[in-house]
């Protein structure tokens, strides 16, 4: 009978740290009130911390895990006991997260994912780093044994095979992508998330009423304010670059057998696993900066994917930045039957351009009509002209960059002009195909075709503005292809 293993003793310390964060505001309040009343703040801290420490110790003694022949068993809970039996064959990833303190003591938080979405199936905090490697080895060996023991149709179910870790030969790791500091810095510059920090700081100033003081500044002081505002355009990229370099430090994507492993992080180190068979779609995204620098970002949608694992939704961004010339080979490594260089894109119905331009003009006219209540006629006319021209340009570019394609192995969809995106869905991952017609579509004899997969995410395959007969042919062909393949979850 396999023996139960306990978490690392430092679990108590890290749990206490979590309690300290939760009670940080009351402790600060107690500190100030104690000083004002002449009390002893240490007594208040003990009141807050002693129950947390007692519960942390109790949870440590109550939490164990063990490796059975075919499953991982995790026991948690002090008053309400929880025992989870997780078959090795169902485990999709063993993800890990290390912050600065974890790395000081060579321990790690581990999340076991089964691909159901939402919360992790089991969270083990805190484990020695060696225990993480052992868990991954045992899970991988158990999955291989379960696959080998899967009965054929009409066959008998064989007896479960005992999982032995020692004889399992390690799978060689192949490095697919490794980002140098220059590329991570460029990623931060192109995303320019420094404005998030600046926006948050501005919001705090506004809520505090400090922004109102700018109204009373003398005329000469506005020169200083303008200089500060201009400086933000320099500070924002610097903050964004620094954050990207720190967050994506040492980003490495490797492949071991049928699984992808991502590892990155300067202060908080994240490792995540993505089984290739769970990949439902591959998406190539290019923003304005990426288009100028001939770069792209690539993400995957996975079955049951969610943001509960370490790193959140970012675990699915398997290439935060990559050169355009390297994209076809990179995608082929994920989907061997897909060749982006050989894709022949079919356009949308040419009449879609007229529809979009008309809609843009109608919106501009309606907005101008509403604006007549508080704007002069000259301003209204100028606004309608600007919005109409801009809408016509945007409509033309949008339809121009729409495209779709279908092969024996995948369906492709592209859209966008300022932000371009391409989605590739393997045919075996197609779960349903639907045809949609709005009243305006029926008037123009058009339709759209949407493809459903088990993965959730943005930019799904939803091809608009197709001629009605083309849409019907596409829907029929995709449905027939999907029905002729075996879906593998």
Q: Major sheet, described briefly?
A: 7 strands, antiparallel
On the 0-100 scale, what is the average pLDDT? 80
Number of self-contained structural domains: 4
Please state the CA-atom Rg, rounded to the nearest Å. 28 Å
| Distance between the first and last residues' Cα | 32 Å
Provide the structure class: alpha+beta
The helix content is: 40-55%
Order of adjacent strands in the largest pleated sheet: 7-6-5-11-10-9-8
Beta-strand content = 15-25%
How many β-strand runs? 20
Given the C-alpha coordinates, what overall shape results? globular
Low-confidence stretches: 152-168, 306-313
State the helix count. 14
In short:
The protein has 14 helices and 20 strands. With 489 residues, it is an alpha+beta fold.
Keywords:
14 helices; 4 domains; 489 residues; alpha+beta; 6-stranded antiparallel beta sheet
Please, could you describe this protein's structure?
- The protein is 42% helix and 24% strand.
- The protein is α+β, with helices and mostly antiparallel strands and 489 residues long.
- The protein has 4 domains: 5-150 and 157-170, no CATH class; 180-247, no CATH class; 252-348 and 402-483, no CATH class; 351-400.
- The strands form 4 sheets. A 7-stranded antiparallel beta sheet has the order 7-6-5-11-10-9-8. The protein has a 6-stranded antiparallel beta sheet with strand order 14-13-12-17-16-15. A 4-stranded antiparallel beta sheet has the order 1-2-3-4.
- The protein is globular and about 75 Å long.
- The protein starts with a strand and ends in a 6-residue tail after the last helix.
